[in-house]
């Protein structure tokens, strides 16, 4: 049985030797508050390395500020979207601090809304790794990690983003590879939701993730 490393509720069922070679990641990184963003990036990469046993496909794009992130993401998907098939995931890394921006709330709201719209329009998952805090000290503390109520362990902000990327990538693979008459079943028969006419049952998310990355 594969070794397990626990840091949050998803990780309790994640083996550490998954083949994530088909996980195509595009990192869009803001230059604002660069030291904090670099720390997030380091934790993100280290967490991916915990579970992956293959070389990752990672492309990088740097932008001057968070304000330019939605534009950069949209241009990437419009100009190079097919290059990242079949399972592209965009990961946004940024740190916005209220004390350094007079338009903080407007900026946060508009960037978040823009990313959501782009994700839905292009049907590509976007992991929103914008760290938004009132002070630099809060940003440093949040970046360093917080305790998980379910496991009691501490997870860094970058580590959480890596787990999210693995989760959404694995679940997307499951849904995309399902046959029209195939159900995902559990011991109970409660239907959770429908996807394109396919019934998806109330199965633990981590089970779907593992199944997704097992189907190469």
Automatic annotation (TrEMBL):
SUPFAM superfamilies: Lumazine synthase (SSF52121). The keyword Kinase does not apply. Keywords: Riboflavin biosynthesis, Transferase. This is 6,7-dimethyl-8-ribityllumazine synthase. Belongs to the DMRL synthase family. One of its GO terms (biological process) is riboflavin biosynthetic process. InterPro entries: LS, LS/RS, LS/RS_sf. It is an enzyme of class 2 (transferase). Its EC number is 2.5.1.78. Coiled coil: none annotated. GO terms for molecular function: 6,7-dimethyl-8-ribityllumazine synthase activity. GO terms for cellular component: riboflavin synthase complex. Catalyzes the formation of 6,7-dimethyl-8-ribityllumazine by condensation of 5-amino-6-(D-ribitylamino)uracil with 3,4-dihydroxy-2-butanone 4-phosphate. This is the penultimate step in the biosynthesis of riboflavin. The keyword Transferase applies. It catalyses: (2S)-2-hydroxy-3-oxobutyl phosphate + 5-amino-6-(D-ribitylamino)uracil = 6,7-dimethyl-8-(1-D-ribityl)lumazine + phosphate + 2 H2O + H(+). Pathway: Cofactor biosynthesis; riboflavin biosynthesis; riboflavin from 2-hydroxy-3-oxobutyl phosphate and 5-amino-6-(D-ribitylamino)uracil: step 1/2.
